[in-house]
Design brief:
Distance between the termini: 61 Å
Strand content: 5-15%
Oligomer: single chain
CATH architecture: 3-Layer(aba) Sandwich
CATH superfamily: Thiamin diphosphate (ThDP)-binding fold, Pyr/PP domains
Bound molecules: thiamine diphosphate, magnesium ion
Low-confidence stretches: none
Structural class: alpha/beta
Shape: globular
CATH class: Alpha Beta
Order of helices and strands: EEHHEHHEHEHEEEEHEHHH
């Protein structure tokens, strides 16, 4: 095991090809740069939506979605940009949605917190804490009834674990052996409320063992660990083995919403933030790839340039796209458009 800052990567891993390692890096890099650009543009107040950034948490969407097919489903919460992009979402459609344009993936009706794109198998994010969990469970029931070998993955935070619907969903999923993976991104806070002030035990991965669900805990900042853990759970579900619960431990670098880091609010310290930023999922992995001679500095630079060009195009597209017309206000409320 080589130690790169505070994350351990094993040299020359046998179960993961260099091609996959580079892809994981690229997915994380893309999410990171998209988030930074949104953060930079947000103060202009042209995006009339709250934004919940996933900076610092990029390894989880990258490592999980690497195992998913287009026909598999992903559900998430308001902190869902990374999940959408990792699932193969359309960057232009994401940015246009943030700008409230008709070309947005949710047709301007959702904003940052309600991203949906059926063409990417991304069935949606919700502003309601734990709101997507029963829907993802129902989608998995649909796969089972249709005899499809697909899986439904739902991402949620440690705060969602405090909602009763997670228990209800896991109980039902175990009863029916549904192909659903419950993925908790434990960043230790729900808005400004620390996990230790809300939960008697720090044991999210074991919390539902009474229902019989396999529970995993892994380092959510180590993309290889995320990839391995998700692989086992997803393969098991795809092969009829039923659901799993995964707790990935991570940290959000920014405030609950928007770009500030919330240190001034007093619920977390600069030291804690620094400690976690030192465990950067991207930088540590980059050092590992460089040390293993899997990528050169020049290749990284080329990747960054290509991603930044794509991002610029997406913002230009979004800003040039039409705003919705007032006469269409009631459109999409009902299935027949009336
Ligand atoms: C049912 C419900 N209760 C409360 C809220 C207010 N709220 C919005 S985000 C949030 C915290 C959720 O934290 P967590 O699940 O850990 O996700 P994170 O933001 O850390 O990714 C709360 C309480 C809500 N949106 N929905
Ligand atoms: Mg949280």
């Amino acid at each position: 095991m080589e130690k790169y800052n505070s994350i351990q990567f094993e040299s020359n891993p046998r179960d993961i090809t260099s091609h996959v390692l580079i892809d994981l890096y690229k997915t994380m890099l893309r999410i990171r740069r998209v988030q930074l650009k949104i953060e930079a543009e947000y103060p202009k107040d042209e995006m009339k939506t709250p934004v919940h950034l996933c900076l610092g948490q990029e390894a989880i969407p990258a490592g999980v979605c690497a195992h998913l097919e287009k026909e598999d489903y992903v559900f998430s919460n308001y902190r869902g940009h990374g999940h959408y992009l990792a699932k193969g979402g359309n960057l232009k459609a994401l940015i246009a949605e943030l700008y409230g344009r008709t070309t947005g993936c949710s047709g301007s009706r959702g904003g940052s917190m309600h991203i949906i794109d059926t063409s990417a198998g991304f069935l949606g994010t919700s502003s309601i804490v734990a709101g997507s969990i029963p829907i993802a469970t129902g989608a998995a029931l649909g796969f089972l009834l249709e005899g499809r070998a697909n899986v439904s993955c739902v991402f949620f935070g440690d705060g969602a674990v405090d909602e009763g619907v997670l228990y209800e969903s896991i109980n039902f999923a175990m009863l029916k052996k549904l192909p659903v993976i419950y993925i908790c991104e434990n960043n230790f806070y729900a808005v400004c409320s620390a996990q230790k002030n809300r939960q008697a035990l720090d044991n999210i991965h074991q919390r539902f063992a009474g229902c019989g669900i396999p529970g995993y805990r892994a380092d959510g900042n180590n993309v290889v660990e995320v990839w391995r853990t998700a692989k086992e759970a997803i393969e098991n579900a795809r092969n009829g083995g039923g659901p799993s619960l995964i707790e990935f431990r991570t940290y959000r670098w920014r405030g609950h919403s928007g770009g500030d880091n919330d240190v001034s609010l007093g619920y977390r310290t600069q030291e804690e933030l620094d400690e976690w930023m030192n465990k950067c999922p991207l930088k540590n992995f980059e050092q590992f790839l460089r040390a293993e001679n899997l990528i050169t500095e020049e290749e990284i630079r080329d990747m960054e340039i290509a991603i930044d060009r794509e991002i610029e195009e997406a913002f230009t597209f979004a800003q040039a796209s039409p705003l919705p017309d007032e006469k269409d206000l009631l459109k999409h409320l009902y299935k027949d458009g009336k």
